[in-house]
Request: fold
Amino acid sequence: MLIYPAIDLKDGVCVRLMHGRFDAVTRYDEQPAMRLATFVAEGAEWIHIVDLDGAEAGRATQHGLIGELVSAIDVCVQSGGGVRSADDVERLLDAGVHRVVIGSLAVTQPDSVLSWLDRFGADRITLALDVKIENDVPVPALKGWTESSGVDLWTALDRYPRGVAKHLLVTDVSRDGALTGPNLQLLSEIRLRRPDMVLQASGGVASLDDIAAIKSLGCNGAIVGRALYEGRFTLPDAIKAAA
Reply:
């Protein structure tokens, strides 16, 4: 299982949100390039970079900075936030991003995203479904987690037949940035329903035990953010726990 250290960019600096709320921001690093270099020096094979300004605005705003970060160091990067068109996908790939993360549009415009999967290849796109649990049902949230999609997670995933999409990132918004542990029940059900997809777990990782639990479910990756920034464990220890 891979560990994806997270770099969430807002106003050009590294931050973390609590429960996906843009009014609950903790600033960590003024120089994201240094944080990126540290993660790579500590053994990261992949980095997860999010343009939070783009996610909030619904349009790409920090893709230039992301391109600078990617070109400055040799590491695989998946990145998204504000991706709204094939041109956005192409610009990020041309900038050196290895996989582009598609969020809201994966739910609201599946036909467009299916065409991008066909054009760019399933290995170059990660579907990112950020869910809120409503009456025990996982429902994808849209537009920087501010709106409900009105469809459940399983309906959204059914729009991507087996063999078409490969990479799936699921975040339980209620746990994101909260250090309360991952939603293992949700991850287990996703693994059961869509064993064909390469699953990245996100939201709530607070300990090495959480990483071990995610791995035990058969997940292929884990996004880790605040726990690393606040020293709950080190990245080398996380990588060892996931190995």
The chain has eleven helices and twelve strands. The first helix runs from residue 32 to 41.
